[in-house]
Amino acid sequence: MRALIAGNWKMNGLTEDARSLAGALKARAEGAQLACDLLVCPPFPYLALVAQALAGSRIAIGGQDCHSTGNGAHTGDTAAAMLRDVGCSYVILGHSERRSNHQETDAQVRAKAEAAMTAGLVPIVCVGETEKERNADQTLAVIARQVKGSIPVGMEAARLVVAYEPVWAIGTGRTATPADVVKVHAEIRRLLVGLVGEGAEKVRILYGGSVKPDNARELLSQANVDGALVGGASLDAEAFWAIAESA
Ligand code: PEP
After folding, report:
1. pLDDT digits (tens, 9 = 90+) for 211-240
2. How many CB atoms lie within 10 A of CB 130?
3. In this structure, what DSSP letter does residue 63 have?
4. Phi/psi of residue 3, each to 5°?
5. I need a surface site. Which of 71, 119, 230, 233 has the fewest CB within 10 A?
6. How far apart are CA 118 and CA 89, in angstroms?
7. CA diameter of the chain
8. Which residue is closest in CA terms to ligand 1's atom 6?
9. Binding-site residues, ligand 1, Cβ < 6 A
10. Atom of ligand 1 nearest to the CA of 163
11. Does 185 qualify as catalytic in the annotation?
């Protein structure tokens, strides 16, 4: 399956940073023959600007969250249809920073994934255990709860992405070992059979958590690793491109 390398810019940068990062990626993409699909998820205020800067390239754009309903009285929120309207084709949902900073529950993430699907966006549903849960040997139980609770039943496999992001590996410079990644991704694949049925092997399962140019190749070559969700390193065009070239 063609890998997806997704950059989560989080809440970083201003207009000029977004413009120059998008411009640098577009310049690298021109004429390049990558073996993966590329996606960037800028902060909301810069989505339209980045969409414009990347027009004509094959780099896709995504949001970092969306609301679970359409238009309405939801101050500060963004509807999935709005993301689609400004050029997004993906949306990250249930990132651990949303789960911890905004107390997002699995049920809320699932409702958002349904809204994303209805609006024509591909949801990237994030799951992952905390360090405490890992130390208590609860990783697979947490993953099972989050996958079953956050992913709507009956989604079209090719239009669903799941990201395994151990919380303790995000932004810390620590990564899960390849053996851990293989174990968790295999479990996610198994759980997906119950949710999307026959097509479960078509769902892209990304690894996220301190993916860098020097560890990307090893992580991306593991079984059931169909790409990466990249935070910090996606803010540097050269590093992000090097990760994409590792796929
Ligand atoms: C993320 O936040 O999705 C992430 C994986 O961050 P980092 O690559 O910085 O660990």
Report:
1. 999 999 999 999 999 999 999 999 999 999
2. 17
3. E
4. -70, 155
5. 71
6. 12
7. 48
8. 231
9. 8, 165, 170-171, 208-211, 229-233
10. 3
11. no
Ligand 1 center to 73 CA (angstroms): 31
Give the CB-side neighbour count of residue 184, counting CA atoms within 13 A: 32
Choose, from 97, 104, 129, 165, the residue flagged as catalytic: 165
C-alpha torsion angle, residues 95, 212, 63, 86 (rounded to 10): 180
pLDDT of residue 197: 79
Helix (H) or strand (E) holding 97, with range, is: helix 96-101
Give the pair of three-digit tokens for residue 142: 């947490």
Alpha-carbon span 191 to 186, nearest angstrom: 9
132-141 per-position pLDDT tens digit: 999 999 999 9
CA 206/CA 39 separation, integer angstroms: 12
pTM (2 d.p.): 0.98
Distance 86 CA to ligand 1 centre (A): 24
Distance CA 59, CA 237 (A): 13
Closest to 216 in 3D by CA, of 238, 191, 188, 201 = 238
